[in-house]
Amino acid sequence: MSAVRYELIKKCGQTGARLGKVHTPHGSFDTPAFMPVGTQATVKGMSPEELKGINAQIILSNTYHLYMRPGEDIVKEAGGLHSFMNWNRPILTDSGGFQVFSLSDLRDIKEEGVTFKSHIDGSKHFITPEKAIEIQNDLGADIIMAFDECIPYPCEFEYAKKSLERTTRWAKRCKEAHKNTEKQALFGIVQGGIYKELREQSAKELLELDFPGYAIGGLSVGEPAQDMYDMLECTVPLLPEDKPRYLMGVGSPDYLIEGALRGIDMFDCVLPTRIGRNGTVLTSQGKMIIRDAKYARDFTPMDPECDCYACQNFSRAYIRHLLKAGEVLGIRLTTWHNLRFLLKLMENVRKAIMDDRLQDFRNEFFEAFGYNKITK
Amino acid sequence: MSAVRYELIKKCGQTGARLGKVHTPHGSFDTPAFMPVGTQATVKGMSPEELKGINAQIILSNTYHLYMRPGEDIVKEAGGLHSFMNWNRPILTDSGGFQVFSLSDLRDIKEEGVTFKSHIDGSKHFITPEKAIEIQNDLGADIIMAFDECIPYPCEFEYAKKSLERTTRWAKRCKEAHKNTEKQALFGIVQGGIYKELREQSAKELLELDFPGYAIGGLSVGEPAQDMYDMLECTVPLLPEDKPRYLMGVGSPDYLIEGALRGIDMFDCVLPTRIGRNGTVLTSQGKMIIRDAKYARDFTPMDPECDCYACQNFSRAYIRHLLKAGEVLGIRLTTWHNLRFLLKLMENVRKAIMDDRLQDFRNEFFEAFGYNKITK
Fold first, then answer.
1. Which of B69, B296, B309 lies nearest to residue A321, judging by beta carbons?
2. Which parts of the sequence bind Zn(2+) (chains A, B) (predicted)?
3. Could you give the domains of chain B?
């Protein structure tokens, strides 16, 4: 039996979006779900208890970073990632592929694997699909990912095709190398750039390998939104109904809602934590640059509609002061709020599916957030 | 009636140290007390709730910094510092004197006041005793401090004498300028370098002004420990029994205990937060450089005897990883622990006074912490 199981609760009568639950060895999470990113075995600025307090049900951590530092051997010796970082709910680790291709220097891609230099100390490393799985087995996350090549945007058809075919061969090797199927579920990753026939080819090839879940990778990498939606619309219907579907690297409010509308169950992104550290917060009325001088004497909460600790206890003026003064509490509060904003958004998405009105919810949210003004 | 009142609970039969309570408009705190420092209206890395959770009963904030940023007018408009930073327990603000003399450039000391340049933007400012009180009235702390000159160490007798006499004249002007005596208690500051007769002169002059509390300033600025102890031994007996005594800028475990032994009620220092950010933690067995490679695979708590959140939930190996990786949670956890360590130390000091055994406690603590080895 697979380590994770998808339970479909209902489909939205208005849109077909799915409400469900994913059951893992460390408990269940409700879908559609947003997964906060804890790159280096910590969601930047947040404690595990704070994450639980804002209803984070699953987090993601990055294999590439943990392999580099502290090293998967130390995490394994600690009893795995859950124990190391004191998080007893589900964890997903990526394969490291995306970081190898985006962060490291001088990468050299061969059929056998990828040679690259560390972004930390310049040391040389060689990662194969087997090695990516071995590291993830040591880390011990509930969901692990096949090692793939994430191609840039734009990318020629021919290269995208060659790359996805290699990604399929690597996925097969990952599956063969995976030793811990009872406790960790290995997901395959559909690639293919923005070419419909390549997405279809990739999905079909991966389906033959029968993974317990499927991700859609290589999107939200700079392509127009409509291209992403098109790719989802041609790929999702090919994926099995009884398995979770994960859209990688997506976390802006519009993409989360549009993804859920198209049948996606899981999302992750550094957006809420990253923009929070830079002083931008998400509110029910749109983005707010809290560092702006106009908030210097604004003693209202960042988002009066928000139930988070930051909005319940501190003013825009105070948080602006903390950020201007370089104080840690400032980035803690903006991060806390942004994560809660997206997790609450997903709660609302799930409720809208339950109530058969996700399209209405989408329209109301877009109007209030200001997306309609932006796109006009 | 003064805004604060000191209640003597008992004296240690073994040492004469005092156990007491200070009552303020925002509640009481037990003494001897350590006050965590929240320079910029935040104790670095900590939320107000976390501070309450480790039994911080009063905190200190810095007038100089708040005057510079965000400006005392904004804090006043927020309803004062308690409201601005969401801390409803007692607060003490210093006068800004120490920072004017230690942080700013090109200061020019005249009888009327001090001209100096901001450490942030180089802007020119002129602070008088009256201005220091006006700013502190706007900030609204429960205890505010007279504007003094904190002389460096070493300092010639003649300058130290001239300076303390000006500090007395400034203290008189501060008292006359203080408009909010019902809600804020103004403390005088005894100066005089390491000269006994000057300390005595300063104390006597200030006593004539009848402040509701007295601080001892200009110590722990580089002089040998014995000089500090000598100054306490000649100054404290001159101070009134029915008012709180505050030793400024002191926060190492040995100084806290030795100060309490000599009749001090209040202490403050950036030491626990500052060394925590640099990766040094205080433990019952002495200081620990948690960044050291030897802790890379040490899965025990920082201090197995500690009851703080960090020690109850995370290992040395994990915290070391966080610090090496530059993660905010790392400095949060070391800060949290160090503050709890000192606040717990003060709880133990108070218990030892209650049990008439502060000298025994001092000897046991020094032995376990390793101070005896260091001084041998």
1. B69
2. 306, 308, 311, 337
3. 5-268 (3.20.20.105), 276-368 (no CATH)
